[in-house]
Design goal:
By secondary structure, the protein is an alpha+beta fold. The chain has seven helices and eleven strands. It has two domains: about 5-145, no CATH class; about 150-230.
């Protein structure tokens, strides 16, 4: 795999350097791991190329290289992703992955970032242009190592879930401004929550009276959290004591 800049990759792809189905050519283009047939890589690369070619941010173009992986999930068909790595130094929160047609995601294009975590995508879209616009928009943040507010909000939601359910959430998805949905590791259901640094920014359907604060962030639940076996046992014991009295 040749670690060329994204800018150089764009120029070479447009020049037709990666159009051959030859395995060596596709490895030079950036394929690193795959489960499909070798002669299918060129066609899959062409589909993925739209997200790489659409990036315009000079920081991404000149400071990253891209490589590709064909994934084989336990359930569902094969799908591909493009992985963007810094050319020099450590990842340091700058690494990100764009997946295409994953059977586990709600939209065709999904962006996973190191800064948000790998349990859920930071951003999803059915439109590749919208995806590349988002990547270009976050490039200055990646360059400076800046963490947007929703990252801290997600961490507060994670603390809330661990505090009440005794287990970490399986995943925490962004659902909009200050809005999240977490999948419980206790009953595997999704629950909607809001999170904000200001108690006045909660949506109307999330009562401020139920808010809990974690590291300066308010978490507003929409419903009661799941109860683990230990919590159920405690409640049942108290219920029995009440009956005995």
């Amino acid at each position: 795999m040749n670690e060329m800049s994204v800018r150089e990759w764009q120029a070479r792809f447009r020049a037709g350097d990666f159009s051959s189905r030859d395995r060596a050519v596709q490895c030079e283009a950036g394929w690193y791991d795959w489960f499909c047939r070798d002669d299918a890589l060129a066609g899959r690369l062409k589909k993925l190329s739209s997200v790489v070619l659409g990036i315009k941010s000079p920081f991404i173009l000149d400071n990253y290289y891209v490589w590709f992986k064909n994934n084989c999930p336990v359930n569902g068909p094969l799908y591909d992703d493009a992985r963007f790595e810094p050319l020099v130094g450590e990842r340091d929160g700058k690494y990100f992955v764009v997946s295409l047609d994953s059977p586990h995601e709600p939209a065709r294009w999904s962006l996973y970032t190191e800064r948000y975590g790998y349990d859920a995508p930071e951003f999803c879209s059915g439109n590749v242009r919208e995806m590349t616009r988002y990547i270009d928009a976050i490039a200055p943040e990646l360059a400076k190592g800046y963490l947007p507010g929703f990252v801290q909000e997600k961490e507060a939601v994670a603390r809330y879930v661990l505090q009440h359910e005794g287990k970490a959430a399986y995943c925490i998805r962004r659902e909009g401004e200050h809005l999240f949905a977490y999948q419980s590791s206790v009953d595997w259901k999704y629950r909607a929550v809001a999170a904000s640094a200001s108690i006045d920014e909660a949506p109307k359907e999330y009562p401020a009276v139920q808010a809990e604060q974690y590291e300066g962030i308010y978490v507003f639940p929409s419903e009661a959290p799941a109860q683990g076996k230990e919590q159920d046992a405690i409640q049942q014991a108290w219920h029995r004591k009440g009956q005995e009295r």
